[in-house]
Amino acid sequence: MKTMTKTTNVLIGFTLLIAVWQAAVLIGQYEKSLFPPPLDVAKGIVSLIADGTLFEHLRVSLLRFAAGYVSAVVLAVALGLTLGLLKRAWAIVDPIVQLLRPVSPIAWSPFIVLWFGIGDAPAIVIIFLAAFFPVLLSTVSAVRKVEPIYLKVAQNMEMKRIHLLTKIIFPASFPYIANGLHIAIGTSWIFLVSGEMVGAQSGLGYLIVDARNLLRLDLVFAGIVFIGLCGLLLDRAVRALERWIEKLWGAASHE
Fold first, then answer.
1. Is the model's pLDDT at 70 over the cut of 90?
2. What global pTM score does this model have?
3. Which of 159, 169, 217 is nearest to 43 (CA)?
């Protein structure tokens, strides 16, 4: 029943969005070439699917995203769990993190291209930078929120540091770490597209730039639609992973 309700709500939301889009086209009396209506964009999507262009660009973007995001999450969680316990070390590292965190990954793009060349590597590095800091900060904060009684029990049991991290601290802090994972999904996906617009020859970002150069704004909108849909699906995938892990540990929500 809940699944049907959620599906209905999603359909209503998308219907309202399309209706507002069509109304904006009609009220503004824009030329189709300047502001394509939903039907024209749908035709553009069909044409991209028919010739295989869309799936090729989508495949490349998802592979880049997976490489950058997963590597950033693994490293950020490992460092965050460690630095969260080592207060003195985090006091030294924290100012450096706060200095680098506000810098947009795109600002590094001239150096990234020089250091890593062109192709997949620059986009992957940009994704890594966009995902790393939100996950690191949420992990350190999560470790600080672990109940002290858990640590005292582990100390009394003379538990090794690696077991303390993997069996007590990580499970206890995971709900808070998950917040960082959600934030990192959005930021890294946004910067993936930006990175592909700058120096790549494939991917959804490149698809949009190429369509713009050809003055095919219907295909530009088609690319935007799929970027949004992929972002939504990636966020839902992380939420599903979060629920699965919590269920595995016996901490699943009963909402």
1. yes
2. 0.81
3. 217
